[in-house]
Amino acid sequence: xxxxxxxxxxxxxxxxxxxxxxxxxxxxxxxxxxxxxxxxxxxxxxxxxxxxxxxxxxxxxxxxxxxxxxxxxxxxxxxxxxxxxxxxxxxxxxxxxxxxxxxxxxxxxxxxxxxxxxxxxxxxxxxxxxxxxxxxxxxxxxxxxxxxxxxxxxxxxxxxxxxxxxxxxxxxxxxxxxxxxxxxxxxxxxxxxxxxxxxxxxxxxxxxxxxxxxxxxxxxxxxxxxxxxxxxxxxxxxxxxx
Length: 242
What we know:
Elements: H1 14-28, H2 43-60, E1 71-76, H3 93-96, E2 99-104, E3 108-109, H4 114-119, E4 122-128, E5 131-142, H5 150-159, H6 162-169, E6 173-180, E7 186-193, E8 197-206, E9 209-218, H7 219-235, E10 237-238
Antiparallel strand pairs: 1-2, 2-10, 3-4, 4-5, 5-9, 6-7, 7-8, 8-9
């Protein structure tokens, strides 16, 4: 009787296959990176951002406006040289004022001498202490009942003012305008754009006198303070006009 040979085939169990596959997959899949929740401190970056914000604030902040300039009123008496300084006159300038104009706060008054008052009629003067040639002053002459033609008035004023003569002689432009107020009083306005300087002049006649108010400034100061200087120019009025 022939012998029977039996062949045995080993079939892996399902659990072993799963276990083997799981183990292989775990080895093939990389572990996800581990992140730390603590944030590093960046002090240099913080300081840079702070400085940038501060600079931006300075650039976006508007500079102080000239509209913030404050003024006080000057009361001029146009007293004669004999009565200059209160001699024989009323010491209350507001009561005896013949004209007024605004003076920027911070400007200084230059005391006018009797000689100046008697020769060229200078009655008052104020200047910017930061630049003395930036100034306003008033002159007056007695015996004028009405204004002459505009060109004649300006030339006559220059006869007693050497600086005005030079300014007109080298001027790039000279503009003039006539204005009449409600009370019928006539004012002449002049604007002279000269070499290195600018001048505004306002002239009128009242009480048998001719009054001339000057506002002068070097070109750099004019470019910087034009709004203030024009305000001063416009503020000049004689009694009866204010």
